[in-house]
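[retry 2/3] Rieske (2Fe-2S) protein: previous attempt timed out, resubmitting with same input.
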Amino acid sequence: MGRHVVCNVKELPDGSSKIVSLENRSIGVFHVKSRFYALKNSCPHQGAPLCVGTVTGMTLPSLPGEYLYGKEGEIVRCPWHGWEFDILTGKSIYDPRKCLVKTYDVAVETEEEVKAVETYTVKVEEEKVVVYI
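[retry 2/3] Rieske (2Fe-2S) protein: success.
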């Protein structure tokens, strides 16, 4: 997959998401607790647009009679049937070893002040100048 600039960091505030189309793939980009994550926008259950689902947290393992809530803003719930996935890993909540959503690498890059000039290889072949692109 190639490199694609999606937006400026300030255009996607913490806790928000954006759906983009990159190389004919629908991808959800999420800003979670000052980090960025990207998931394929398709639920593995029946192909629903997963990334338009509710972003929430979940109950955590705890002792009997205790109810711990955590991972706020890290879980996306499929809008069709409620399947839940961890935005940070792409793994499903109910079966993290077998059911997952494709994740993509995301980086925050700063734009350099000096723009590189695109150059091409030039050769002389039997008195002809040839440019290779």
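[retry 2/3] Rieske (2Fe-2S) protein: The beta strands are 17-22, 25-32, 35-40, 54-60, 68-77, 84-86, 103-104, 121-125, 128-132.
[retry 2/3] clearing retry counter.
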